[in-house]
Amino acid sequence: MTELATSPAAADEAPAVEETRGLWVDGWADLRRRPRFWIAAALILVLLLMALAPSLFTSVDPAVGELSRSRQPPGDGAIFGYDLQGRDVYARTIYGAAPSLAVGFLATLGTMVIGSLAGLLAGYSQGWADSLLSRIGEVFAGLPFVLGGIVILTSLNEPGEIVGAQELVFQVVLTIVVLTWPVAMRIMRAAAIETAQQDYVKAARALGAGPFRIVLRHILPNTLAPVLVYGAIQFGVFIGAEATLSFLGIGLRDPVVSWGVMIAEAKDRVQDIPWALFFPAGFLVVTVLAFVMMGDAVRDALDPRGR
């Protein structure tokens, strides 16, 4: 009779894999029972459709304006009215979703990737690399966001320089990532330190598994949840950060159409054309709220101590 042999390495990996799979399966089952998740998901789906297929919502060119329609209030011709240049506020609000969501997505992705890699290295090594990365992170974390954004963006652009839309988006994303990655690093570092003390990690190390294998197969899968929760919440925060930088005149600007740019253009005309500010600001608030709600729901579902 032949007996099936199981290698020590495979036996050691099984608890970690099963624990990770159980966390995600249980988290999804809990998430589906939360009305807050479905409300946030529905709002985010609509926003994604606006960003990816704005023609489904309007056929008006957001860049075309007629001075004869300047400052006309909402009505049959334009449900959100017209701005100072006679451009359709509704069309600009729809098309403004794409740059705002693009900045939020790219900034979130960059922050999570850089912060997670730095946090994994610092949390697993716990040596000179940990001390060095922690000190560097403290330097960037100590920079006020608005002040840091002013310094970086004014350094990248000469006064009066004409910058393309893609380059503007890249500069704003770079600024947000540079100023926010230490938070993701701290979250990942704390999770990596806790996971590195688990028995299955110690067993893998004793069996001769290399650092790369341990990090990839054992630590990373069990440390993703808190970083993903942070990313879901920060997605909305970063969209608000883009609007803040654009409002100050150092972020996105014409010819880019974003909610922050629209707010910046209308801020001096609130008494004359309040609708040019309130509608993009309302969409911005709803978007930030949707992603914060999604992040809160995911956090509650993936945190075993919260169930």
Automatic annotation (TrEMBL):
It is a multi-pass membrane protein. It is found in: Cell membrane. The keyword Cell membrane applies. Residues 97-295 form the ABC transmembrane type-1 domain. Keywords: Cell membrane, Membrane, Transmembrane, Transmembrane helix, Transport. The chain crosses the membrane at residues 37-57, 101-124, 136-156, 168-188, 227-253, 273-298. InterPro entries: BP-dependent_transpt_permease, MetI-like, MetI-like_sf, OppC_N. It comes from the Bacteria. Its main location: membrane. The keyword ATP-binding does not apply. CDD domains: TM_PBP2. Belongs to the binding-protein-dependent transport system permease family. This is ABC transporter permease. The lineage of its organism: Bacteria, Bacillati, Actinomycetota, Actinomycetes, Pseudonocardiales.
